Amino acid sequence: MTGARRIVVKVGSSSLTTASGGLDADRVDALVDVLAKVRDGGEREVVLVSSGAIAAGLAPLGLVRRPKDLARQQAAASVGQGLLVARYTASFARYGVRVGQVLLTADDTSRRAHYRNAYSTLDKLLEMGAVPVVNENDTVATDEIRFGDNDRLAALVAHLVHADLLVLLSDVDGLYDGPPGTPGASRIAEVTGPDDLAGVTIGSAGKAGVGTGGMVTKVEAARIATAAGVPVVLTSASRAADALAGRDTGTYFHRTGRRSADRLLWLAHASTPQGALTLDDGAVRAVVERRTSLLPAGISAVEGEFSAGDPVELRDLRGTPVARGLVNFDAKEIPQLLGRSTRDLARELGPAYEREVVHRDDLVVLTPRRTP
Q1: Given Cys at both, which of 6, 135, 276, 282 links 303, Cβ 3.0 to 4.6 Å?
Q2: Domain for residue 329, yes or no?
Q3: How far apart are CA 136 and CA 106, in angstroms?
Q4: Angle separating helix axes 151-160 and 262-269, nearest 10 degrees
């Protein structure tokens, strides 16, 4: 961990706010003190993924708890995001460090041109000595506003910026094999793969009540990051300095895979499928086992309304998602293609139809999730 040069640090709402919902300046300053020390000398770069916009906006709007309706959540985010960035700006200024606000949504980051622009912006901010402060754009997000308190976004950002380490900070000092604080519960120091968590019950949302993320979303974020070649440390915000210094704290998730293409990771974990294609058994084997393109002959049904270039889900005959890909046809075009060979289609409809429905370069096989 001490050799990590580019680090993504994610902090949750409960680690930044008071019980009433307002920003806790002392807690923000304590985190910034740690991050500024990590950056000291310019040899290490830090990207901060920070929740807290909605939580910070509660008290100023007279709200005593996080609202359930989307409109009031977005109103709180609108007020709170400005307060959040202003606090970070003032706190980092004590060290002569500039911050740059980067607001993202899952929809933004699943589009090729958008994630390329996001990478360029983040990389340039780091090159110029600034600390990017990334948050989900809660004021315009819809389903994404429940993205998991930015845990999954942090994993995707870590992959996007080619990070050497992802640090997930919470109000719990690691993953435990039982409810933390109960007799017999022990901290899990290392996770080398999914088998290490077999039989472990993962807890839900944190105790503060101002965020949406819990241990489930953090473990899922760790799974995404480690599968993409980025190791993860999960610990409490109060032990951030220990984690970044490489001391034994929290839970360390070893990388389980190698870095994959940016767009495939975003396609698998950040895109919203606009429809679904049902595949016969032969097509499932071809796509999943042989990693081939999806041809019209292997499709038995189509659902949804989508356009060429949209992400779609590929399902087996039982309805289980097996892959996700960018489709080459509009939804209304596909019914006439079902079960037919590209040669026959080209002969009848023209050479434009002698192509794959989903090309293998635009397709990612989904790994079945294991339930602990």
Answers
A1: 276
A2: yes
A3: 8
A4: 170
111, 13, 16: which is closest to 66 by C-alpha? Answer: 13
317: CATH: 2.30.130.10
Query: Could you list the residue range(s) of the whole structural domain that residue 301 is in?
Result: 272-365
Q: Is residue 139 part of a domain?
A: yes
Query: What is the total count of domains within the chain?
Result: 2
What's the CATH code of the domain at 134? Answer: 3.40.1160.10
- With contact defined as beta carbons under 8 Å apart, do 339 and 299 qualify? yes
CA-CA distance, 295 to 352, in Å (whole number)? Answer: 14
Ranges of the chain with pLDDT below 70: 1-2, 20-21, 106-112, 141-149, 203-213, 260-263, 368-372
Question: Are 133 and 247 in the same domain?
Answer: yes
Residue 108, amino acid: D
Tens-digit pLDDT profile for residues 339-349: 999 999 989 99
Taking the CA atoms of the chain, what radius of gyration do you get in angstroms?
22
